[in-house]
Amino acid sequence: MDGAALKAWLALCRAPGVGSVAVSRLLESFGSAEAAVGASSSALRAIGLSGAQIDALKKPDAAGIAADLAWLDAAGRGVLTIADAAYPAALRQIAAAPPLLFWQGDVELLGMPQLAIVGSRAATPQGLDNARAFAAELARRGLIITSGLALGIDGAAHRGALEGGGYTVAVCATGLDRVYPARHKALAHEIAARGVLVSEFPSGVQALAENFPRRNRIISGLSLGVLVVEAARESGSLITARYALEQGRELFAIPGSIHNPQARGCHALIRQGARLVETVDDLLEELGPLLRPWLGTRLAEQMPTAAEAPLAGDDPAAAAILAALGDELLTLDALVERTGQTVADLQTALTILELQGRIAPAAGGRYQRLPPR
Fold first, then answer.
1. Which of 14-28, 57-71, 316-330 shows the lowest per-residue confidence on average (mean pLDDT)?
2. In sequence order, what are the residues at sequence separation of 6 or more whose Cβ sits closer than 8 angstroms to the Cβ of residue 351?
3. Where are the alpha helices (DSSP H) in the chain?
4. pTM (2 decimals)?
5. Based on the domain organization, do 115 and 199 belong to the same domain?
6. Span 306-344, pLDDT tens digits
7. Which domain holds residue 238?
8. Are residues 125 and 228 in the same domain?
């Protein structure tokens, strides 16, 4: 894209009150962003733009555009317009698709098969472990893990995907010149290096409440399906779930304790028809047919079973657990003593092994090794 075209797209992106629907009308009527920005006021009025929208187009935000161009003047950054062939096909199909996407990292990931994992910011330790373990295993199976960079489940999902040796997409509710929440600055840098950050918001846009639902429609729009790990009844994750249903995406939810308020949103989704998920294979059973158009039959039909899947990066804690268990049933304390691993490492490894069908919980807080399936 040449400089004039890029500036025209940035002018459209930054014009107050000119949203996705108006941009779509402008492109349909005038054929390009440059032609739309250069159209006469009478021509703009003729296609239904308001006086305020016309004024916004005629007085572009020069300072803002300059800031965007300065941000873009670095390796590994760019923009995708809805007119670009490389724009994610799945996202292009949703209502009010974002006209412009700013990205930092590996932009090709946006066109690959993705599963969104979302949930509560105030997640329980078990919820965080589940998000991390599911993301790691799904990433090892070839799916890109997409989430919103928020605290709680989102952050655990991103980290799990990276720890599993896979890739992750972080959809941000701010301009990519800043990180929200600030506590995820290091994580954002890691994603930029081993995944991709993406936002429809230009430089300088802060974390405003109205931006998060807009971000959520992109999370679901990029993905084949959405997995809700934990969510209270009023959780923002349920907005993503609603978008998933509206967009025709698969919807999954992990059940939890009836005493856990962070599980009630998931239970409500399951009552409303979301697929109850206990293992990674529950997800892949549903997603397999959807993966064929993306990756052919190799991934969809030859997806390894949980029992065949390799351990996470030859995780020493997982290998030590399997060696220690043998034919015995052992508690977590006994595993700590026998393996020399920390409780945190063992808990993560136990969750992964359970998801893979290699172990199962038994009475008395013990674990047993399962035979290969």
1. 316-330
2. 129, 130, 132, 133
3. 3-14, 20-30, 33-38, 41-46, 51-58, 62-72, 89-92, 125-140, 153-163, 185-194, 211-222, 237-246, 264-271, 280-295, 297-302, 316-325, 332-339, 343-355
4. 0.80
5. yes
6. 334 444 445 778 888 888 888 788 888 888 888 888 876
7. 107-302
8. yes
